[in-house]
Design a protein that fits this description.
Length: 258
Amino acid sequence: METITSRDNARVKYACKLAASGAFRRSEGRFFAEGRKLCPELARGAQLEELFCTAAALEKCPELAALPGTHFLVEEHVADKLAGVPAHQGVFGVFRTPAHTLEEIRPGWRCLALEGVQDPGNVGALLRSAAAFGFDGVILSAGCAAPYAPKTLRASMGAAVRLPVIETGALPPVIAALRQKGIECLAAALYRSQPLGAARAGAGGVCVVIGSEGQGLTAETIAACDRTVRIPMTDRVESLNAGIAGSILLWHFRGAGL
């Protein structure tokens, strides 16, 4: 195992650039992750190309040595640069980004579609909930937090590679394509909506469409959907954030057997 002692090492600089730049991640088709638990989880669904570990991390978790890819031992000051913060777990990975397209979606699928959800914590939490509740794929419109950004990956706890995540542009044409496949599209909105308890998914599949807490869904996206649903609440709160509201909806439309 090669030891990296310099913070200016080319591989270290490359990994740091992946962590910092969404445009660079997209151009390279790779992403960066940190964590003793997260990196092995991601390696189950994405190709791990390079693994950077400190001696302390390897001593604590010797099973890391069995992970695929090229391994590098890094000194603590190099790990500090990779992490960007003083407190870290000493385990970092460079992964190849999974590639998924709308053509993969089949009749009968349960999908989640997000419009303009910019908070990486909410996007990550919803990816995790979609995987937990048996959904088949997630669609992210332009303006959503990047699914393979470090903060989103941490919030998703590896769920970003456990099911297809499809990044697209505006949602209305995507919704139209899903409806042509017999997938019923349900907008989470208040106007002319039915209570969630009365909503059921048909045999042809369902797509739950969620916007951000602040902006909600655009009028065009709501109009493109089959109908709207709402989560009944007391008047003690005005709204729920996207991560919580979306998780409730995902649980309601969960896969068979859950």
